[in-house]
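Can anyone check this?
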Amino acid sequence: MIRTLLARAGLVAAAACAATLLTAAPAAAHGADAPDGSDYRTRTTGVTPARPGLEVRVVEAGARLELTNRTGRPIEVIGYSGEPYLRIGPDGIFENTRSPATYLNRTIAGDTTLPAEADPAAAPSWQRISDGTTALWHDQRALWRESAPPDAVRAAPDREHRVRDWTIPLRDGAEPAQIRGTLDWLPPPDAYTWWAVTIVGLLAVGALGLLAAAAPAGARALSALGVLLVAGGVVAVLYPVGRELDAGAQGMGGVLVGLLSGQVWSLLTGVGAIAAGCYALARRPAADFAVALAGACLALFAGVANAAVFARSVAPVPWPAEVARVMVALVLITGAGATAAGVLRLHAASRTAAPAQT
């Protein structure tokens, strides 16, 4: 029985790895738009001169700008060559198909090949892309596009540096305006320290599996694993919710759509960990198997998938980066530790059952 469960666990783990590999390309494409972290902090200081009803903010760890227009008038965002690029107004959002920015801003790297019709000197050709009043776009003026950091950063990487002040021109009818902001380099955290703490934590949780399952201490250990899995599962659900909020999701519906389209693995593994934790707390049959399998999925899809924050100073969530790192560490400790503890308990049970069968 135990061997059958272990074999099934191996098959599920293999299927999970295969799913990860098969979805790697789409995930990477999405990750380019919504990075897992950054060492460059993009901030906006607002619109100058101020326009009541016109709001702008930075989303996706600085990867995009979000402009909401409630003025009742169309507002144009000006492209890199002074041409109209976006138009946001009461009749929806339009992009100028003649503007090079329309194509360059589709990726954070700005490496899209320009079509023949892209000509900033040509008359605008507006194409409606949304009926809303909020536009999101990458803007190279607010980003650091080079692979190497600025000279000042290379000279003193342990200090914060102002990379530049940036502006993005707007047009309100015939009146010019600007979005203003700053771009700063922040020293990244010590990833080795975070990994060391995480490894020590998961070993401590895994050691719960050394307690004899039939003894009172073993029963309490299973309950402790259940509590940890529930906590880790809740964190695994909250983290992708934070990513969607940071990416500009509006309302519960917008968050749910974003979760189901881009964060579904983390969401499902979080819910699965909560269910497995409750299963363990009820001390149901095969609880050890459920703990091991749910822990492995939690560590892989909600922990390792977000571990880039250990080495990045800006996290893609609307709370401090230190909190994000603690959350990811908790998920890894809970997931990997529960896997180790569950496997140890299954192994001990199989050794106990073998003499009884003979």
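Reply from J.R.: I decoded it. Confidence is low (pLDDT under 50) at residues 5-32.
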